[in-house]
Amino acid sequence: MRIVRQLLGAAIAAAVIASPAMAEELTGTLKKIKDSGTITLGHRDSSIPFSYLAGKPEPVGYSHDIQLAVVDALKKQLGTDIKVKYNLVTSQTRIPLVQNGTVDLECGSTTNNVERQQQVGFTVGIFEV
User: Fold this and answer.
1) Model pTM above 0.90
2) Which string of DSSP letters, residue by residue, matches 76-105?
3) Mind listing the pLDDT tens digit for each residue in 62-115?
4) Which residues lie below 8 Å from residue 28, measured CB to CB, with a gap of 6+?
5) Where are the domains positioned within the chain?
6) What CATH number is given for 2-117 in this structure?
């Protein structure tokens, strides 16, 4: 459990690390989130225990809990409320949807490898196999 807390803390810190001076100079996804007041979270429908639908319209699971912690940290860092939208992703669509900006954050069982690092950004891993 201790390692989970450390990884969660590192993931949140990596997601929102910025000095207060940088808040005025936001670019990319963070600027989009602040300007729109909305973040779109990519989620899976049946990737138990990471992200899945359990009879509710909103996803549940370990990865989803991490996403919500990142959203809470972003609210504090950006000093604004952020509405959460959900977008279903699959193993085939998750990277393209992050690349084209449809999804702002996907947290799941996506393997971090060199090929994918050239396509999208990764933070520290949240689990090991």
Assistant:
1) no
2) HHHTS--EEEEEE--TTTHHHHHHTTS-SE
3) 999 999 999 999 999 999 999 999 999 998 998 899 989 999 999 887 777 788
4) none
5) 2-117
6) 3.40.190.10
